[in-house]
Amino acid sequence: MSETLLRRKEVEKRVGIKCATIYHKIKNLRFPKQHKYGGTACWKMSEIQLYIDIGEEAYHQKLLMEKKLEKVS
To answer: Could you tell me which InterPro entries the record lists for this protein (predicted)?
Structure first.
């Protein structure tokens, strides 16, 4: 199954927040990180949908846990 990729404008529409806020939330581990494909920033639809489904605080906790696991490895 292939992953659907979203550009920034589509992400803004789906989550209802603007560009500067998105990047601020990424920096603070409160939003899914973008992936670079050929120099173009895209987000995975599955990650955005999970963010929408579980909410910002739960997503933040998920990212904190992943970061903690990376340090242990």
So the answer is: AlpA (IPR010260)
